[in-house]
Amino acid sequence: MTVTTRFVDYTDGAQSLRGYLASPGTSGRRPAVLVSHAWGGRSPFENAKADWVAELGYVGFALDCYGAGVLGTSPEQNTALMQPFLEDRPRLLVRLRAALATLRAQPEVDPERIAIFGFCFGGLCALDLARGGDDIRGAVSIHGLFTPPPVTHPIKARVLALHGWEDPMAKPDTVLGLANEMTTAGADWQIHAYGRTVHAFTNPEANAYEAGMAYNPRADRRAFATIADFLGEVFGD
């Protein structure tokens, strides 16, 4: 399949943002998936996942939370970029809705069939867009953070969480908390937990198992097979 790509500039108020859009070489409007980045900002990793979405036959859009061209280069910088959004979840939701509105406006996109998946901080972003009650088909958290925002709404999206059971950033009690939260919100939810798996298990550059961050090729393969099946389900109904 031929995949075409382009950058899409958009704004949230005065903040300039730049996303990466990948679409299949087909005519007509297609379902679309927001790809939400990890704590360092939109990188080639997320762009490649948008390409993967396009190879499935959908439109992929790697969104930007931090600003056009802004990327952290160290854990300290990444934390400084992410922390303001963790401390102000309504601000984060507004930023995510700017990306959602931008994606809906693209000529290749079926605005009624949109989902989101994200990694780490981006997993929290995916859950927060669902928690906001937004009209999306599905939300997937991939080794994400589970702490809910102060205010949530009834969840329309189907929710999938893909989780490393030994992830020190989301311990088993938070997994149970997410299950209870999703049940209370009336969501159609799934949680898949991978044994002997820690944080960042889909990132080939993660290589510090003792620190709780390590690539796991088996969990990575299982996770993306599950995501492909989930997207087929939510877009097929």
Description:
With 237 residues, this protein is of the alpha/beta class. Helices cover 36% and strands 27% of the residues. Helix 4 links the parallel strand 5 and strand 6. It is globular and about 45 Å long. The relative contact order is 0.13.
The assigned CATH architecture is 3-Layer(aba) Sandwich
- Overall pLDDT score: 97
What is the domain total for the residues? Answer: 1
Label the structural class: alpha/beta
For the record, the CATH class is Alpha Beta
Q: Helical region count?
A: 6
What is the CATH T-level topology? Rossmann fold
Unreliable runs? none
Run of helices and strands? EEEHEHHEHEEHEEEH
The separation of the N and C termini measures 24 Å
Beta-sheet strand percentage? 25-35%
Radius of gyration: 16 Å
Number of strands: 10
Offer a concise description of the structure.
With 237 residues, this protein is of the alpha/beta class. The protein has one domain (3-236): Alpha/Beta hydrolase fold, catalytic domain (Rossmann fold, 3-Layer(aba) Sandwich), CATH 3.40.50. The protein contains six helices and ten strands.
Characteristics of this structure?
8-stranded mixed sheet; 6 helices; two-stranded antiparallel ribbon; 27% strand; 36% helix; 237 residues; Rossmann fold; globular; alpha/beta
Tell me the layout of helices and strands.
Blueprint: E1 3-12, E2 15-24, E3 30-36, H1 44-55, E4 59-62, H2 75-87, H3 89-104, E5 109-119, H4 121-131, E6 138-142, E7 158-164, H5 172-184, E8 189-194, E9 207-208, E10 213-214, H6 217-236
Parallel strand pairs: 3-4, 3-5, 5-6, 6-7, 7-8
Antiparallel strand pairs: 1-2, 2-4, 9-10
